[in-house]
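User: Okay, second chain of the day. Same drill as before: sequence in, structure tokens out.
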Amino acid sequence: MLPRRRFIETASLSLIALLTPIQAIAAWASQAFKANSLDAAYQQLFNSTSFTTTRKIQILTPQTAKNPSAVPLKINANLPNVQSISIFIETANSPLVATFQLSATTSPFFSTHIKMVKTDVVIVVVKTAEKLYSNRKKITLINNHCGS
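Assistant: Same drill. Structure tokens below.
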């Protein structure tokens, strides 16, 4: 577990690194966010649909989620020279959820919440200086409506 001070430093540096080139990244990834299939999003973002599956990308989230509007997701990429981390939902109408460009000094770990419509597979793709890696995890949504 990270000490609180180290965590705050890492989170602050990550936020600064992510927000600095936001307009350039938004323009660059806009077609990938508009893609309506997983392969089209991969092609737009990475110019490839081929990835090496690895467990070095840890997707830390509950197996079941009660609130589909805020599914907690932590990602840790234990890979060298990470340049970007992207999150996809396998069967979503717009599969690309988020993409984060990382500087060389940014730790490839972050925590976020994503919105899901139904039980689905979350795919994380990590781009390093050498190649593209991926890992996936199925997240089951539980209907938790009052009176059901």
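Strands lie at 52-53, 57-60, 64-65, 71-77, 82-89, 96-101, 109-114, 120-128, 132-141.

User: Thanks, on to the next one.
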